[in-house]
Amino acid sequence: MHKIPVGVLGASGYAGRELSAFIAQHPRLTLAFATANAQRGETLELPGGAVTFIATDDAPLASAELVFSSLPHGASAEWVARARAAGARVVDLSTDLRIGNGAAEAVPYGLTEWTREAVRSARVVANPGCYPTSALLALLPLLERDLIASGATVSISSASGVTGAGLSPRLDLLFGEVTENYRAYGVGNSHRHLNEMRAAVQLLARDVDLLFTPHLLPIARGILSTITVPLRAPLADPLEPWRTRYAGEPFIEVVDALPELRQVQRRNVARIAVRRVEHVRTPTLQIFSAIDNLVKGAAGQALQNANLMLGLDETLGLPR
Ligand SMILES: NC(=O)C1=CN([C@@H]2O[C@H](COP(=O)(O)OP(=O)(O)OC[C@H]3O[C@@H](n4cnc5c(N)ncnc54)[C@H](OP(=O)(O)O)[C@@H]3O)[C@@H](O)[C@H]2O)C=CC1
Ligand SMILES: CC(=O)N[C@@H](CCC(=O)OP(=O)(O)O)C(=O)O
């Protein structure tokens, strides 16, 4: 069967490597090109054979029906425009075109389970951030049914593995700094993902605010978010909104037991559980949401969106 050529910009990075590996095993896609910056000329071993990274400037953009950009923030938007001008559809994994980031142009936000129909017909999709994916998938069933207390501040406490920070060398991410350690960062509601999450939440519930605190885990991949939500009224069956909203969704696992990172690593899933909070004055729920930051939080969700944009089965080539 004819395979559809797709290209990856920034294929030498964490997200780009993951994407390239998914494409190499995809039944309907073939890797047209894979680009790098400092690592240009180096090879990446993939199932079915190695690929050599070319410089991004040399990417034959017009040879691809769809281009993924896994370039860093700031560098990506220009390449999205170039790929688009060359006639390709684009999935941008960076923040550049996401809601809440001051992008000049509004393109569909690719939180697939929320915006599937817009993604299907889009020429360009802004793939969500990893923390926003874990938090928004958890909150969507409450937001859509207006179940969160008016004027409430929802607290999102998330812990991420270090691949979330990308491959760039940083002293605070050296093995000796991270291992056997655990710390908060971006505290005081100062992390850049807050704007993205807030913009998405406010499209559904204008008077709900967020307090977001990220933490760094001494592991490679995975995000666990613990989200505390004041409700308008107690829920008789706390898990019902999630079971109903996500019935039939191939990549959302609504579960009774608390999710753990080892259950989601290397899989394109969000695993969600809920608990009623006892001994507090207002009706309150805690939601626990686990994803792999490089898969459902980046490359997997990007491929899920690309499948839809190319008219393919959404689940093709994705690890469940
Ligand atoms: N890591 C994650 O969990 C997630 C990442 N993302 C987003 O995906 C994108 C890629 O992230 P990630 O893979 O972690 O990042 P990495 O730092 O691991 O990779 C960045 C890629 O871009 C290339 N690159 C770096 N600087 C430039 C530049 N100035 N011009 C052109 N190319 C450049 C790098 O090439 P080389 O190494 O050869 O220099 C590499 O291929 C980012 O926008 C990130 O925000 C989104 C969700 C989650
Ligand atoms: C652990 C770590 O440092 N994580 C990154 C976020 C992950 C990421 O890549 O951000 P995007 O999803 O917006 O691209 C951070 O806190 O900046």
Give a nutshell description of this structure:
The chain is of the alpha/beta class. The protein contains eight helices and 15 strands.
Describe it.
One of its GO terms (biological process) is L-arginine biosynthetic process. One of its GO terms (molecular function) is NAD binding. Keywords: Amino-acid biosynthesis, Arginine biosynthesis, Cytoplasm, NADP, Oxidoreductase. Belongs to the NAGSA dehydrogenase family. Type 1 subfamily. There is one protein chain. The protein is of the alpha/beta class. The chain folds into 2 domains: 138 residues, Rossmann fold; 164 residues, 2-Layer Sandwich (Dihydrodipicolinate Reductase, domain 2). The chain contains 8 helices and 15 strands. The strands form 3 sheets. Strands 10-11-9-12-15-14-13 form a 7-stranded mixed sheet. A hairpin with a 2-residue loop joins strand 3 and strand 4. The protein binds NADPH dihydro-nicotinamide-adenine-dinucleotide phosphate and N-acetyl-L-glutamyl 5-phosphate.
Task: Give a quick set of tags describing it.
Dihydrodipicolinate Reductase, domain 2; globular; 7-stranded mixed sheet; binds NADPH dihydro-nicotinamide-adenine-dinucleotide phosphate; 320 residues; 2 domains; alpha/beta; Rossmann fold; binds N-acetyl-L-glutamyl 5-phosphate; 26% helix; 6-stranded parallel sheet
